[in-house]
Amino acid sequence: MVARGPVLAALRASGLSVSNGSDTRVSRPASGSPAELGIHDYVLLAVKAQALSDLAPSLAPLIGPSTIVISAGNGIPWWFFHDFGGALANQSLKSIDPLGSQESAFPRRRILGGVVHASVRVHLPARAQVVATDRLILGEPGGASSARLQTLVAAFRSGGIHALASEHIRRDVWTKLWGNMSINPLSALTHCGTARLLGSPDVRELCVRMMEEMQLCAQRLDLKVTMTPAERITVAQRLGDFKTSMLMDLEAGRPLELDAQLGAVVEIARLLEIPTPYLRAVLGLARVISPSESDHAGGGTI
Questions:
Q1: Active-site residue among 94, 176, 224, 243?
Q2: Residue 243: active-site member
Q3: Residue 133, exposed/middle/buried by CB under 10 A (0-12, 13-18, 19+)?
């Protein structure tokens, strides 16, 4: 695990602890800087999206001539429009990769997409509590199966993770974001967990209106979402009552993951000339309450 600061100190002192109900697993992964860890077969990116642009250039020591890079963060990843076709073919998004550092750092032909459906709380550095898990979806951006994809899925399954290979990873990314880009900022604005938030008819209606605006973008991009807004909200409710990652970040004084989750959708809509009054209003309000990068300094992991 690439780590620094208090996270690195905790990993080296007592390892990584992951609790799920009454079961707790403690492991001692190799931890340190990219230079200390060296080249790996797979590099899994699970940091907050707003940290990745600055972090990406420093990860070069991890990446060799055959290293596979997996993006497993929230929101639209930098590779989303690679060889995509259509109105936004090969479009880069300023909200995601403003300096092009991710595009430069990660080899285009050695990327896998990942979508995590889970709720996890980190109470202390290197101490994680699993609230609920559903599945981990992995896929080639182009949709084909591959030996590298099947090897990774098998490895996760052998470790007890419900991992699935997808032929439509872009659609899976979009579908998860379809719920996150509304529920996450609204939970931060209201300081509510998902049960109370989605139990309000007025808030549910606002979520649906936001999802309808995003769906207009999906139609223009020929991303065939196979569920309704109500069904996507049900997926979130299936994880039980939990605080969203954005609400937990707000409570901890950390910057919010707004650009990757909501800013990117607004940018895509602007490029497609689609009006998004609900999305823009919620984005503006959430930006007002988001702590700035200078307000918080801490460690992260990959």
A1: 176
A2: no
A3: middle
